[in-house]
Design brief:
Protein name: Glutamate--tRNA ligase
Helix content: 40-55%
Function: Catalyzes the attachment of glutamate to tRNA(Glu) in a two-step reaction: glutamate is first activated by ATP to form Glu-AMP and then transferred to the acceptor end of tRNA(Glu).
Radius of gyration: 31 Å
EC number: 6.1.1.17
Number of helices: 19
GO biological process, one term: glutamyl-tRNA aminoacylation
Shape: elongated
Distance between the termini: 83 Å
Number of domains: 4
Largest sheet: 3 strands, parallel
Subcellular location: Cytoplasm
CATH topology of the largest domain: Rossmann fold
Strand order of the largest sheet: 1-2-3
Length: 473
């Protein structure tokens, strides 16, 4: 019988869901989908001083926005502290861990001696084999694992290959603090075991942790999960990703107007590939994703690539679906709450009608919102610098002529207004652009917009005529 694959995403709720964490969640989710398995969510909230409910909410909200779901209810690590203590005490009883009474001063002295001798600062094992009767009174001990002292601990990693760690460098690390709280190292191993996790997919900054956790698994006589440590994300300059590169919370990308589908597509390509395929649906990612196609080199975050990819998704998304996403995202976009507050059925219909033209020029929902703003702009329109330039010279007189021509039209639609503009241009020996550009400036306050005849149709006869009149000579 084939073992069901169980992955997990295990963030610490000390801040937002950052872009590296989002990619880790995505890789775990895709591998579970690819294998017909499950992905679990564990909130590692053992750092009580830094863990916050707001961060937990932000992580869960970020995952939901990205379209990443999980099986069952989230597991909260702190709530399982009793189980972790029980395992630590069981290791002591089995002779595989021990109470250590070394004082903070002794530990400082050990580190300083090691540095002076050119050795890595490691605990020297002074309480490893001492009898309990030697314990000083009034001192609460920590519990340390009895790590192997010779040989090496090997992590057979699905991404990094075989990685060997000399046991002399791993020392007898603490698994239970003197106040009875478990360390990260112990909690992770116990939780992964109890949750049935078969595959651990996480950043390669945890690779050394993988060796220490392997020692714990072996001490407990438990099966070691398959490990896959993925390279971290770097900035375009090759330096470790920072806020200046885009190491922002997932919520920031929503506020910048990126689509969840585009974010999934972009994130999956940071360190994983399927041939030269750049654009892929979630179903294709799930079908193709496997651990052996994850690269060993750090990937580079590139905003320009993300923007171009997002622009593709904007154009490719069905208009009704895109409109629904746009309205849903309004509360997060710059200027979005203000638009939401003044939204009427008529304005909603205008935005939906303008959407096909708007999405052709936008790369993000924020750009789409900005380029649609002419629809609800207050009169008289404020002209940007280029638009004002288009209304210099004879342009305002031209607008007066067009106003008269438009007012006489029996029907108002894109075809009728185009016919009137073309007739005017031909009669005056002008190229179409020489007529359309001043008209665009008068109607939108800008030099770029969707097709001018679509703009006229969406604004309607009455609004178009008053805007033209505002700018005409």
């Amino acid at each position: 019988m084939t073992e069901t694959v169980i992955t997990r995403f295990a963030p610490s709720p000390t801040g937002f869901l950052h872009i590296g964490g989002a990619r880790t969640a995505l890789f775990n989710w895709l591998y579970a989908r690819h294998t017909g398995g499950k992905m679990l969510l564990r909130i590692e909230d053992t750092d009580r001083e830094r863990s916050t409910d707001a961060a937990i909410d932000a992580i869960i909200d970020g995952l939901k926005w990205l379209g990443i779901d999980w099986d069952g209810d989230p597991v909260f690590q702190f709530a399982r502290a009793g189980r972790h203590r029980e395992v630590a005490e069981g290791l002591v009883a089995a002779g595989r861990a021990y109470h250590c009474y070394a004082t903070p001063e002794e530990l400082v002295e050990m580190r300083e001696t090691a540095r002076a001798e050119g050795r890595p600062p490691r605990y020297d094992g002074r309480w490893r084999d001492r009898l309990p009767a030697e314990a000083p009174t009034g001192v609460k001990p920590v519990i340390r694992i009895k790590s192997p002292q010779d040989g090496e601990t090997v992590v057979d990693d699905q991404v990094q290959g075989r990685v060997a760690f000399p046991n002399k460098d791993l020392d007898d690390f603490v698994i239970l603090r003197s106040d009875g709280t478990p360390t990260y190292m112990l909690s992770v191993v116990v939780d992964d075991h109890d949750m049935g996790v078969t595959h651990i997919i996480r950043g390669d900054d945890h690779l050394t942790n993988g060796a220490r956790q392997t020692i714990l698994y072996q001490a407990l006589g438990w099966h070691v999960p398959v490990m896959a440590h993925i390279p971290l994300i770097h900035g375009p300059d090759g330096a470790k990703l920072s806020k200046r590169h885009g190491a922002l919370g997932v919520d920031a990308y929503r506020a910048m107007g990126y689509l969840p589908a585009a974010m999934r597509n972009y994130l999956v390509r940071l360190g994983w590939s399927h041939g030269d395929t750049e654009i892929m649906s979630t179903e294709e990612m799930s079908a193709w994703f496997d651990l052996d196609a994850i690269g060993r080199s750090p990937s580079r975050f590139d905003f320009a690539k993300l923007e171009n990819l997002n622009g593709h998704y904007l154009r490719a998304t069905d208009d009704d679906a895109l409109f629904a996403i746009f309205i849903e995202t309004l509360p997060y976009l710059p200027g979005g709450p203000e638009l939401a507050a003044r939204m009427t059925p008529e304005l909603s219909a205008q935005i939906r009608a303008a959407l096909p033209g708007l999405k052709e020029r936008a790369k993000t929902l924020a750009e789409l919102l900005d380029s649609a703003s002419f629809l609800w702009a207050d009169r008289p329109l404020a002209l940007d610098e280029k638009a004002a330039g288009l209304l210099a010279g004879d342009a305002r007189a031209l607008l007066g002529d067009l106003h008269a021509a438009f007012a006489a039209l029996p029907a108002w639609d894109a075809a009728a207004t185009e016919g009137a503009v073309r007739a005017y241009a031909e009669a005056h020996g002008l190229k179409l652009g020489k007529v359309a550009q001043p008209l665009r400036a008068a109607l939108t306050g800008r030099s770029t917009s969707p097709g001018i005849f679509d703009v006229l149709a969406v604004l309607g006869r009455e609004e178009s005529l008053v805007r033209i009149a505002d700018q005409a000579a």
